[in-house]
Amino acid sequence: MAAVLDVQNLTMDFGGLRAVNDVSLSVQEGQIVSLIGPNGAGKTTFFNCVTGVYNPTRGAIHICPPGKKQQKINGMKPNRITERGLGRTFQNIRLFQNMTVLENVMIGRHSRLNAGILGAILRGPSTKKEEYQVKEDSYRILEKIGLTVFANELAKNLPYGAQRRLEIARALATDPFLLLLDEPAAGMNPQETQDLIRLILTLRDTEQLTVFLIEHDMSLVMSLSENIFVVDYGSLIAQGSPDEIKQNQRVIKAYLGEVVDA
Amino acid sequence: MKKILFVCSLVLLVSVFFVGCQKDTGVIKIGVAGPHTGDLASYGIPTVKAAELVVADWNANGGVLGKKIELVVEDDVCDPKVAPDVATKLIGEGVVGIVGHICSGATEAALGIYLDSSIPVISPSATNPPLTKSGAYPNFFRTIAPDDAQAILEVDFVLNTLGKTRIAVLHDKQSYGKGLAEFAKSFIEQSSNGEVVLFEGIQADAVDYSAVINKVENAGADAIIYGGYHPEASKLVSQIKEKGINIAFISDDGVKDDTFIEVAGSAAEGVYASGPNDTTQDPIAVKARENHVAKYSEEPGAFFYNAYAATQALLTAIANAESTDYEAITSALTSNYVDTTLGSISFDENGDAIGVGFSMFQVQNGVYVEIK
Amino acid sequence: MNVQYLLNLLMSGLTKGSIYALIALGYTMVYGIIKLINFAHGEIYMIGAFTALIFASLLHYMGVNMILILVISMAFAVVFASGYGIIMEKIAYKPLRDAPRLSALISAIGMSLFLQNYVLIIQTERFLPFPRLIPDFPFLAPIQSFISSRQIVILAVTLVVMVFLSILIKFTKIGKAMRATSQDKTMSLLVGINVNKVVSVTFLIGSATAAIGGVLIATYMGQINYKIGFLAGIKAFVAAVLGGIGSIPGAVLGSFILGLTESLGTGYISSDYEDVFAFLFLILILTFRPSGILGKPETQKV
Amino acid sequence: MKPLNKDLFNMKRLKVSLAMAFWLSVVTFPIMVIKINTINDTVIWRWGNLALIVILGLFGSYIWNYALDRMKERKGESNRLKETLSGLYQRLRSNPKVKKPVLAAVVLVIAAFPFITSMYSTSILTTALIYVVLGLGLNIIIGLGGLLHLGYAAFFAVGAYTYALLYQYFQIDFWIALPLGGLFAFLFGLLVGIPVLRLRGDYLAIVTLAFGEILRIILNNWGPVTGGPDGISRIPRPSFFGIDLKLQGSINLTYYIMVLMVVITIIVVRRLEDSRIGRALEAMKEDEVAAEAMGIDIMKSKLTAFALGSMWAGFAGVVMAAKTTKVTPDSFGLMESVIVLCIVVLGGMGSIPGILLGAFIFKIVMEYFRVFAMYRMLIFGAVLVIMMVFKPDGLIPKIRRKYTVEKEGA
Fold it and tell me: Closest approach of chain D CAs to the CA of A154, in angstroms?
């Protein structure tokens, strides 16, 4: 199996600060992998480089959508990367607060639709069909995530856990082959976290997704991940199966160190 | 309750539209248009006052054609976008002639509409030459000389009376000033004894003109002809004086305003400006001024005498034509002389007043003195 | 290349720049703290000048000597213009502190129109002569064509005001409160900063600098009317953005660059396009440095 | 929180108002009371004005504070006027018995307007309709795209000068110039948009202002081509298949052209809002980063909004040139941009009926406000401030169109 995501020697500098230092890793198709590390270790920066929010200082990021050729995505704008099949969520929820839940998902379909200005103004049969279709598709996605009860609510009025799930629904709407989840369980109670674990597993199996997540909740990480990467101070310090990581001295030190620092 | 209010206001709005539709044939209506609010109101209000004085005078003597005269005053804020609406409004009111508009741009925007409705227009102040000279508006007349007449006077004065040869021509980039400056430039270029060493537009309302003054100095000019209004002119002469530069400053009617002397103070001494011939000693003008002071207890403002003359000319033409017919009025305007505040005037085939001209003035001891 | 000519142009550029700077300083300060384009700032400058003219004339009729007139009328201008600034903030901006930026901008435009027409109606639409309150310094007589006493005073005051404001913001307690407020209003409230007071003080200082500018510029130009604030305000705003809006030294730097661009553009190309040079330069700078020359780039957390 | 007072009379409020009146009278003292006559060096003391300020300050600030308290109290409660209006509208829409006659009556009044009123009213209404189109166009940029634009008049100028210049040099007819004016404004929008749309918020505002001024200055200075400050005159009014309509006819024709254009603009704006592009713009306005991560091309979306909005200014400009028969650079200054901006915000950003109302108030009420002559701009300025404080969403706030589903469990 080919690596759907292959990162080589990725480095990201902000002025004098090196946020990500020479990280290389790859993710295989169909896997669920996690990126963990203490706060400020550079996890979100890593995600932002992969999804095009930042243009990395050095290194190469290649993706290989299933059944397609490998391609380099460094420096592409986020929307181009999304078009190529990387869907993401945000650590600090970034929903379109004043739009309904359904509309949030419909926005996710944007790159899979074609209607342009003329189409919108003339509103021919193909546009009408597309508009009908996007509503249907979005509703299906809400069904999968279990948010149909809220479909017509404004996003800002949703309970916290549901907002997190809506982020995932919205990312799913972009038709990704690789789903990048930035702390999906943050702020959830144990019950919600259990639901989330089941959801991620279901999605992986029914949608043929590869899932790459950043998480602090170790129960979630350990129960889901097939492979774990650990970063500290921007550098990759360990990788392996959950059991290997639990035993890794450097990882333990990094986490303990964090405790001492705090 | 709300609905009733809504309907009421709708009815009110619609009824407002209908106002101005009715025509009254018992009187003869004359339109007066110009800026009556906003920045340029001080150029438009004196015309309204002049027209009111003339009309009061005529009405006291029985009006014209046996009917009373009524003024319809409309504000165009000197905006070419507003002027056509004002014109249609005046036409809707049934006016037979117009005194106005004040600014050349607004005048031109409105003229086409008056022409279509065959209404004669006499402006006291629109000096843009093509208004008459293009021949496009046979319904247009004015009681003020066009800009080119002023420019040729200034150039002749600078070159031949003052004997200056290297002239810097400045203007304020606005219609009046730039038009004048361009005429001055072409007249200097046609002459044999002068050259234009600098031709520049300055930014009106700017805080400082020292850069352009440096440029004038650097060009080696011995005289400045400035086309524009007094606020910029007084800043220019003050800064010239402050730099200790000795150079003749010649300007136009827009500067021949007492505010200029007041603001520029001692720096205004010796400045030349062209302005309409001084007819204030004319008996009609003296009487007009007295009437104005009696009624408004202040001195008349800009273009008052021109507007007075314009109203007089229009009413006299109606009386002479013995009709409010367009053809009759225009032919009366061009064929008869009429005694006005500007002296005895008539109009040539273009619509420019014969007998109205400019002279040069100089600031001496804080007042404008005509140079004979 | 004529060196004398170049020096003259540089001098007039600096003068113009310091005139813009006197207005831009207040602009940038208000913007820095509450992120509001205070369109009416130019009007405060105009009102400062009018107040000074009124008091200067009164004192003049009373026969007070020139220097005293300058000092007293300047003091009155500062006090009253600050009053207008604070009341304006209370009426037009304070209720809108949490409203969208556009609402506050429209409110500011409304305030600007209101103040212009207020002075137009209550005082006059005419241009009024403004007395030359700063006398000619005798030692400048030999280089009078190069620099005048008024230019020197304007330049010096600009630099003094800049240094004063920088020190105020960097080192004083109220300055620290201002910086905190500009970073995060809610957090400042939580740590016990009286945000209302900070904003009032900001408007007070901004209006006071505008009034100082108004008096000095009016005595330089020799005339005022109700409209002088508008164009000067726009130019000062351009200068503040050029230098990086919110930055005190940036406002002065931006103003000098704007003044020099206009003056050199006039001198070597044409004053017909004076404003075009200024605006093109602004667009050019913002294309390469989207936050102005000394402005901190906006980093957004993702 | 202290309890807010519903009562009209309240001691604390009275005290605050007294203090405010005192401060107002102190601060405005020099300008309100003293008037210097520089000509004959006399001072006029106008004590009456002081009394005026005290009274106005007291009552004004009392009412102001009362209204502010009331507003805070009502925050969270829904807007009654808005609900009444939208309720009325819904009932009209849903009841075919009412809908048809009402619609027919409206169409009839609009169609017959030039014949039942005067030429002047038609002319004024046409101007108002031009500002409606301008407002709706700017609304695409500000309301949909969230882009602060202070140079909109420049695009109005592009349209007007397109027709003026094409006629002057090539005798191009109005009907050919109309689409071209829109096209050129669209292209100019792209040209300006590409370098400036990277900038955010206030920086964008100042740069669009700069572009607007640059264009105006060039039109003003490029005398040989554009006629300089005098502009271009004697532009023909629209013709109808080559038939000369005379004044009355062409004024009516211009009116019908504008009615049609407003209808088309409304349809286009509504369809645009209610489409993939409209959703993308809305998402972008809410959160650019998230929108980009959802596959929305930010630059393209901004450019679309910017150029499309500019295009309507172009159309409106061509009609304006034909209506006034004269164009001058001064007609397209910063103040013009500000006026259109005020129409949009005053009426209610994003709300089509709001912008209609805004433009009508601005053009028609201001037209009849001439009674107040010199107080007109003063009142306008005060109204802007009061509106923004008490009704920041405009006269008729936008009722956001929501996509909803009616499914089981929903």
Answer: 9
Q: Which residues of C touch B236 (CB under 8 A)?
A: none
D238, D338: one domain: yes
Q: How far apart are CA B119 and CA A225, in angstroms?
A: 90
Higher pLDDT, B12 or B28: B28
Which tens digit of pLDDT belongs to each residue from A141-163? 999 998 999 988 899 999 988 99
Q: Do D286 and A83 touch (CB under 8 A)?
A: no
User: Whole domain around residue D32: which residue ranges?
Assistant: 11-73
CATH for B24-144+280-357, options being 3.40.50.720, 3.40.50.2300, 1.10.520.10, 3.40.120.10: 3.40.50.2300
Please classify residue A66 by burial: count the beta carbons closer than 10 Å to its beta carbon, then call 0-12 exposed, 13-18 middle and 19+ buried: middle
- pLDDT range class, residue C4, cuts 50, 70, 90: confident
Strand partners, B97: B30
Say if residue D178 is in the same domain as residue D42: no
pLDDT given for residue D39 in this prediction: 63
Which of D100, D79, D179, D110 is closest to D356 using CA atoms?
Answer: D110
Task: Give yes or no for residue B10 having a pLDDT over 60.
Answer: no
Chains B and A touch (3+ CB pairs under 8 A): no
Question: How many domains does chain C contain in total?
Answer: 1
pLDDT digits (tens, 9 = 90+) for C18-38: 999 999 999 999 988 888 888
Ranges for all domains in chain B classified under CATH 3.40.50.2300: 24-144+280-357, 148-252
Q: Which residues of C touch B41 (CB under 8 A)?
A: 125
Q: Which of D383, D385, D390, D395 to mutate to test the interface with C (most CBs of C within 10 A)?
A: D385
Please identify among residues 92-151 of chain D the ones whose CB lies closer than 8 Å to any CB of chain C.
142, 148
Beta bridge partners of B64: B67
Interatomic CA distance for residues C255 and B208, integer angstroms: 14
Residue D401 lies in a domain: no
Interface of A with C in 148-167 (CB under 8 A): none
Measuring CA to CA, how many Å separate D205 from each of C235, D151, D199, D302, D334? 14, 8, 9, 14, 12
B101 cis-preceded (ω within 30 degrees of 0): yes
pLDDT per residue as tens digits for the range D121-180: 899 999 999 999 999 999 999 988 889 899 999 999 999 999 999 999 999 999 999 999
> What Rg do the C-alpha atoms of chain D give, in angstroms?
25
B217–chain D Cβ distance below 8 A for any pair: no
Interface residue D264 vs chain A (CB under 8 A): no
Range of the domain at C207: 22-134+149-237
Are A94 and D287 within 8 A, CB to CB? yes
Span of A54-63, A186-195, D76-85, D390-399 with lowest mean pLDDT = D76-85
- Chain A neighbors of D287, CB-CB under 8 A: 94-96
Contacts of C183 (CB under 8 A, 6+ apart): none
Domain B148-252 has CATH 3.40.50.2300: yes
Low-confidence ranges of chain D (pLDDT < 70): 1-6, 38-40, 74-86, 89-90, 92-93, 369-373, 406-410
Using a pLDDT cut of 70, give the percent of chain A over it: 97
**DSSP class of residue D36?**
E
ipTM of the prediction: 0.89
**Shortest Cα distance from B241 to chain C (angstroms)?**
9
In a domain, D408, yes or no: no
User: Quick one: pLDDT at residue B21?
Assistant: 43
Laid out side by side, the sheet with B338-340 consists of B338-340, B343-347, B353-354
Task: Give the minimum alpha-carbon distance from C140 to chain D in angstroms, rounded to a whole number.
Answer: 30
Label residue C215 by pLDDT band (50, 70, 90). very high
Please give the Cα distance from B88 to D127 (Å, whole number).
13
